[in-house]
Fold this sequence. Notes:
Layout: H1 3-23, H2 29-34, H3 41-73, H4 75-93, H5 99-111, H6 115-125, H7 132-161, H8 163-184, H9 192-195, H10 202-211, H11 213-232, H12 236-243, H13 249-278, H14 280-299, H15 304-318, H16 321-332, H17 338-367, H18 369-394, H19 403-409
Helix pairs in contact: 1-6, 1-7, 1-8, 3-4, 3-5, 3-6, 3-17, 4-5, 4-6, 4-8, 6-7, 6-17, 7-8, 7-13, 7-16, 11-16, 11-17, 11-18, 12-13, 13-14, 13-15, 13-16, 14-15, 14-16, 14-18, 17-18
Amino acid sequence: MQTKKKNLIIMWVANFLVAASATMILPFLSLYIESFGEFSNDYVQRWAGFVFGITFLVAFFVSPFWGRFGDKYGYKPILLLTGFGIATSIFFMGFTSSVKELFLLRMLMGIVTGFIPTSMALISAQTPKEVAGKTLGTLQMGTVSGGLLGPLIGGMMADLFGFQYTFFITSFAIMLATIVVAVGIKENKKTEASKKEKSYTRAEVLKHIFKNPTLLTIMFVSLFIQTANFSIQPLLALYVTELNSSTNIAFLAGLAFSATGFGNLLSTRSWGKLGDSLGHERVLLILLILCSIMFIPQALAGSLWQLVLFRFLYGIAVGGIIPSVTAYIRQVAPLSMQGEVLGYNLSFRFLGNVIGPIMGGLISGFMGISFVFYLTSCLFLFAFFILFWSVKKTSPESIFKSKEQNYIES
């Protein structure tokens, strides 16, 4: 098997496990906190939000630094450091006896969440620009699917093995995946030419981002997407309860949420391939409109099967956004700063993971759950307009030209 293909397969599996580990505690987080003692519902709900959000809040600040270290010292050492760090923090979560201990371990997990942007930088560095969308789309399938299927996997394991052993099993799986990375990943050694490439300071990287309006806008689009995804996530169980009177609500809520992940699995690679030929900015514009449309029927669903169907269709659309963003960064950022730029983009996504649940909870409390779907639809529509305006302002012809024409002119 070719080294590039083997690297891609290994990183796909590893990214799936790491992404799933970040969201797997969602179905039983409140129950786990309740097991620490006698607490009021308000206390449990408040700390559940703190414990879940702190990982992404810390990662928002730390991710660019991991990307920068990878650009300078190589990506594989960073993968091993963060992989073992995540596995260790999850392992000790199984021994916690208080909510504050759990909070501190989730904070530690946020510090070592540089695994995913580093893996993207590693694969991006070995991939020609012409097929970046297809390849990074394939890799992103692991990350997105892991994040979306994490709650379902976590809920099932908690029912089967209990809370403590769920942490142990997850830690062992990530540890094993990291060992496979250590043994199986072959990172391209820097040639003399690449060693002579200009290295960029943090200020120069930020200047590059701000001088490229479309790149900066795409990072904000990443923020909006994650805010939209996570705004409805904590409310799905309640929404499923409104649509269905069954007793196994947790499983049905996981099914409704994971339907998006299955849509991702089917479409992500195809959207990336289309972006390679059509242009990633143009594909992003198409997908933002489709996502905006697909959220509206979710608010109007009259039964559980309708909600699952519409979330599946939404998953097909949203599955192409992240690989298109990553492939665009691959094209516009010099190779020696790509890890750091991808880290900044991931920071925006992590910030959306924090804002989304807070926004969804506040809005549903005042306006109802259905209104959250409508607002999320508007959020995607807003993202479409600012991206369209940015692309048109930067290079109006790029919206209408084929990718091949842009390559020729560049």
